[in-house]
Each structure stands twice: as C-alpha cells, then as structure tokens.
Amino acid sequence: MKRYLEILQALFIVFTVHPWHRNVGRAILQTPKVYFFDTGLVRGDQGVRLENAVAGMLLKQAHFLQDSAGRAVNLHYIRTKDGAEVDFAFSESGDLKQLIECKLGDNKPHRALARFAGQFPDVDAVQLVYNLRQEEFRNGIMIADAANWLARLAA
Q1: How far is CA 15 from the centre of its chain?
Q2: Quick one: CA dihedral 101, 102, 103, 106, positive or negative?
Q3: 8-state DSSP, 40
Q4: pTM of the full predicted structure?
Q5: Can you list the alpha helix ranges (DSSP code H) found in 86-130?
Q6: Other Cβ atoms within 10 Å of 40 Cβ, number
Q7: H or E element: which one contains 68?
Q8: Which of 60, 82, 119, 146 has the fewest CB atoms within 10 Å, i.e. is most exposed?
Q9: Closest CA to 150 of 136, 129, 125
Q10: How far, in Å, CA of 37 to CA of 81, rounded?
C-alpha cells in the first residue's frame, strides 16, 4: 500500500497531510491523511469534498509561503489518542500557529477545536463553515465563512 501511495504522490494525483506532534517519533507513527489534487476524483458526501478542497487550498498556501517568503510553514492535522481531531494545523519552524476545522453548516465551535484552542492559547483557531449566515468570534475561535476566509489567503 505504501508503494502505491508513493506512486500516486509522484504522479501528483494525491498528497498527504501528516499529523503534528511535538514528538516527531510519535507523529511518524500516526497515519497520514490522503487528499486528491483533483477534487473531481473525490467520492463521498459534501463534507468530504469540502475538506478535500480546503486541504488543497491550504497546501497551496503553505507552498506559497515556503517558496515566496522562505518560511518553514507546513500543513498538518492533529489527533489525540482518544480520537479528538482537528482537520488542519499550520506549523512554522515546528511551532503550532493555526488550527482549522471544516464544517458544512455547524456554527457551534467544534469540541476538539475548542479543546486544542484552550490547550494552545497563542494559536489562532478558525472554524470554516460552508453555509454560514454570520461570521463571529466565539470562545477564542473565529467562526468564518469558508469561501470568504479562503479567498483572503495569499496564494
């Protein structure tokens, strides 16, 4: 399976997002998440397609910051042993900088996102919502319209 994944990555069909962890050894043990470059290949519900599209845009942003500004920015996800997970996390030079969760229509702060936002108070926490009526800042988490927030990315 690992060899097939390497082939698909070499052909730019898929890319992987690895877990963020302060202990690099533990991060290596966790399974990476796999996303398609071409979102038309994604099978699943609208939430799965949204997460894949956001992953592609965030990867583009990370590469832009690496290439244009020489910043050591990487895209990850966070998952604990008990299953709490945040879809995406940006790190810079090994330090966690931003947590990003994707939702179709839920504007309540995601439990795992709130947990990690409390654990890392200096990190920006954003919940991107596809169908959002009103953007707001709640309990240290920015609840943002996904399209508007993604449009403001530099890349």
Answers
A1: 13
A2: positive
A3: G
A4: 0.90
A5: 111-119
A6: 6
A7: helix 46-69
A8: 82
A9: 129
A10: 29
- Cα distances (Å, whole numbers) of residue 138 to 40, 55, 125, 142, 150: 34, 24, 10, 6, 19
Here the tokens at position 12 are: 């730019």
How far apart are the C-alpha atoms of 9 and 132, rounded to whole Å? 34
Task: Show Cβ contacts of residue 2 under 8 Å, excluding neighbours closer than 6 positions.
Answer: none
Residue 110: both structure tokens together:
């995601």
pLDDT of residue 28: 47
pLDDT in tens, 24-79: 445 445 789 999 999 999 998 999 999 999 999 999 999 999 999 999 999 999 99
- For tokens 């832009």, the residue is 64
CA 145 to chain centre: 15
Question: Which amino acid is located at 35 in the chain?
Answer: Y
* Tokens 């996800």 found at: 77
